[in-house]
Amino acid sequence: MKKEKTADNVRPFKLVHQILSLTGISFERKSIIGFVELTIVPVKETLKIIRLNCRQCRIYRVILNDSYEATFHYFDPFLDICQDNKTKSLEVFSKCHLEMAKKTDPDNNAGELVIVVPEQATHLIGEGRGLRIGIEFSLEDPSGGVHFVIPEGEGTMEERAAHMFTYGHENSSRLWFPCVDSYAEPCTWKLEFTVDKNMTAVSCGELVEVVMTPDLRRKTYHYTVSVPVSAPNIALAVGPFEIYVDPHMHEVTHFCLPQLMPLLKNTVRYMHEAFEFYEEALTQRYPFTCYKQVFVDEIDNDCNAYATMTILSTHLLHSIAIIDQTFVARKVMSKAIAEQFFGCFITMQNWSDAWLARGIAEYMCGLYSKKCFGNNAYRAWIRDELAEVVKYEEKFGGIILDCSQAPALPAVSSINQSPAAPAKAYNDNPFYFPIKNIHTISPKYVEIMRKKAHLVIRMLEHRIGQELLLQVFNKQLALASNAASTKISSGLWHQLHISTNIFTKAIFTVTGKDMAVFIDQWVRTGGHARFTMTSVFNRKRNTIELEIRQDAVNQKGVRKYVGPLLIQLQELDGTFKHTLQIENIVVKSDITCHSKSRRNKKKKIPLCTGEEVDMDLSPMDESPVLWIRLDPEMTLLRSVHIEQPDFQWQFQLRHERDVTAQLDSIAALERYASPATRLALTDTIENEQIFYEVRCKAALCLTKVANSMVTSWQGPPAMLTIFKKFFGSFSAPHIIRQNNFTNFQHYFLQKTIPVAMAGLRTAHGICPPEVIRFLLDLFKYNDNTKNHYSDNYYRAALIEALGNSITPVVSMVHQGMALTSENLSADSKLVLEEVTRILNLEKHLPSYKYTVSIACLKVIRKLQKCGHLPTNPKIYRSYAEYGQYIDVRVAAMECLVDYVKIDGRWEDLENLIDLLETDPDPMARHRLGRLLIENLPFDKGNRHRLDREELALRIWNNMNGLLSHDTRLRCDMVDLYYTLYGTRVPNCLPNPELASILKPQKLASSFAAVANRERTDSERERDQLAEIELESMSQKRQRSLSPLDVKPLDLIDIGPTELLIPSIRSREGSPMGVGEEEIRDEIILETVDSNIKTEIVEMVDRQSDLKEEIVDLDDQNSITMVSTEPPPVKKSKTDFYSDNSISLPGITPSSSSVTGPTGFEPGMFGSSSKSSETVVPAVASEPSVSSKSDGSKKKKKKDKKKHKHKHKHKHNKDKDRDREKDREKSKEKKDPSIVRLIKEDTQETLSSADSSSRDSNPTTLDLTL
Questions:
Q1: What's the pLDDT tens digit per position in 150-167?
Q2: What does R_g of the chain's alpha carbons equal in angstroms?
Q3: Which long-range contacts (CB under 8 A, 24 or more apart) does 1149-1157 make?
Q4: What would the mean pLDDT of 222-251 be, rounded to a whole number?
Q5: Which burial class, exposed, middle or buried, applies to 992 when counting CB atoms under 10 A from its CB (0-12, 13-18, 19+)?
Q6: Where is the composition biased (Basic and acidic residues) (predicted)?
Q7: CB–CB of 926/972 below 8 Å?
Q8: From CA 412, how far away is CA 430, in angstroms rounded?
Q9: By CB atoms within 10 Å of each CB, which of 15, 583, 1052, 1172 scores lowest?
């Protein structure tokens, strides 16, 4: 096969061999000292510059052929992506991001390390002659690429299980050694690692020997990789690992951390079956000579596959008593083995070909999962994958798997049947990030792209057949195996790569079918099809009139489909399939029925599986069609909406044997709340022949149907009878039997039904009391003593059920009163006590992966959100700290993100951003980033108290340069920036373009005129009287107050609308000069807590008769009076406890004299605003600055207080009176001045001030209630 001309050919040399030697791996300093030697063969004799990839390494020396030192240059463009930081928009950033990525892309003959061949060494350069490049380097406290895990405690590194491993987002080997970091540049390797004698170094290839150093304190591991592999597929793990050789395959070795060997043996006991399955399916032996699995802690993914080895998360390990984790672990490990064939052995030629290697590996993993877990689980998984792809594409845009080449132009446009548009119309990038480089793409995009690639490979299977598709894979593996056994001089190493064009030619060679049209349609074009189908029965002609519409072709991510579409009709006489040719947006077709209506005759109905079943046909109309399915085999990337009566969905649920059809029926029946639907769902739950996932979905659907039928529901709560029937004792059904999870279907049903029942609601919108009593009885009678399996997931499900039973509080408590146990309902008290008891018990008897603790944290957050507990993030912060188990941390972070969105202050959001930037665990940082993206602190485009310039700048600085060594987190930051601010400059940041358009001076005067016209005459009279009184009071005060206490200000800043509001004293003209207008682009309102509190204390201390009028920014109509009494101290809640509770995890005992219940610190659920209320006296005692240079600052601060509290007194009255006389005439010509600003006059403008004032003025609003 002729090799394609790609960017790989641009590189002026070929890499033949590489030596990697790391001699100084220090856990104490988190540093590495090493040496690499690359053997290259120049393609041209004019080679003057050699570009390699290397990032965050310190290069000491570069030497050619051990004789000639070469000069070198290093640059990392990701340290400052947008060098012009004036315009902080994603439109600008995306262009710079792609440009910088290209500058270091090895497939573009680029790199961070540029080596200049010296003049005296030019004779070494010759076409076909080898050249050795030696590089000495070190790595100190790396920010990415290498992760050191050093647990706290006493003892040596070995005793503390300290270990390190390499990781990275895609091709990131450059982060820990100089290389050609491209999948398209394979070579053979020699690897040497010197570690402490009690440590083990695990790397790629065969272990040749282990040699002790002369001082007998360290040893060196020597590995060789004889099969050419690329640098991104090289990895290393060092630690005090325990070693387990697989008893079924001696070539396979497993490594785990100390004391985890029993879990390791159970987890990997069936792994040899995956090897056997892949070798048999592909009719090709495993391409390497050995395979190693290393389980480590704090890895960024569950699994990272490399040549001959895989680094996995230690959290995958489980005992034989764990059910749920078994499915996850087995699937992850089987996928890693599949990636050894496609991904490590056969690699992508360019980034645009990544879909092939990943899609094939995912496809092979799916085939093994079908064999391992059954066809029902496989089809349900395919349905879920398809739904995820559709959801993402409709939200962000169509995913183009291969963007390197535009699809061939169709003869007619696929959108409106007009002449075909240029190729660009089919290949435009609809995303806010560039898709042509892996280091600029959203991690979510990469995840969904892998799923779509898998579905496209599966579509190929339906078009050419599974057997022929596996032959295509076999051909590629055979060619690659032959090439791997030769030297580079043979010119066959290109067969170790795969590309879209190579794959298309291989399909044609094996099958004789040209799939170019398919590739253009589904690989080089993004989007999916979207069908809506309706049907009408024509009794006279005995036909079904179908109408299939594609109305959404112009929506994001949706494209028009042209081609065959399979329709499956289930009639009274059997199942009949029809293929329609879809050419237009609306397709109508009449399909003749094979049966005639026989509603009154009972007859066995033949199904597609060949079996015959009895059906009750009484609900049917005159149509002989029982149900209709569209594309039942999921051979297209599509979403389907079928409109048919409820009885047809019920028939489909009861009698269709396909899992996907049953799940579709359940999703549709949510809209049809009727006794017949209730009966169909109940029968489905009880039917032992139905797949357990369908039964669980039916239980959750029955909850929604029952809630819709709450007024007509008869009998006990839904599913209560079913649960007692399956799991109740024979003599006393209300008492649950001892746990026995040997029947896995019953186990999953036993977990799901309580969660579904907890969602039931009465006509008043609350959970029925008998359901809550039932749930609490499940805890009471839960007995797992004779069960072979752990009940941790079951107990976690019961706690989740308690959380689902919670409804928002309906209380008559007066506003401002603290929440106490007396205010709680009896059911809420019971729920809280049970959750507290279990959470405390978890400290002493932790469950597997702390699943129960995670469920408890989420229920506590639900209690807070529904008003049963005061909102307080303290408990979640303690659980989110580094050192806790990762799943617990993520759950606590989820609660914190939710708290920030609803109740949080700036300090709470700042705490999350600090965690996102500085947390040592890369997985925790990534998960927190995704949580913030999925549950934003505030909505885009709306002014909010958390929408500050500081937040936008922090996110921008991280993605612009601070995360140069963490591609995935940098792209997470880009996603967060987009979801918060869109592609343009955030509103909270200065916008030079907008500033040049708007004139602040004119806006201010017009704003003042509008506000003044809207005020009533009575208000003006009252203001004038108040001014006279305040002027007399200010004269008296001037005699007693020092000049330093007077801080007048003429301007009030109210945010990015660029409106300047004159204060009481600035009656005439614009308060800003022309020069200031040009300098200041945007004015942002910041409510200063200390100023407000200082002024309040001043008024309290003086005890004068002065009446201060306050405009409450949280109340548009009321004008309240400042009380001279301090705010009441809220009473700590002391009644939330259980009899045997103890301290909550992560909460230290309080030294307060207030005694609280066992298991809680007094006030731990208290209002987060209490602390700010007690700060007032301290702020008042701050010394004032007396320097003259600070006069302008004092002016601004004082007048901000005036604007906030609307003081009507004046300072320096005599001077002001003279000015008033002098300017009396000029004032008449200008707009009337603003004496006082009422919020209802400027409701839209002051929306940001409204939200921000909640943080700064705790005396006017209690955030906790």
A1: 998 888 889 899 999 999
A2: 35
A3: 1156/1132
A4: 95
A5: exposed
A6: 1213-1242
A7: yes
A8: 22
A9: 583
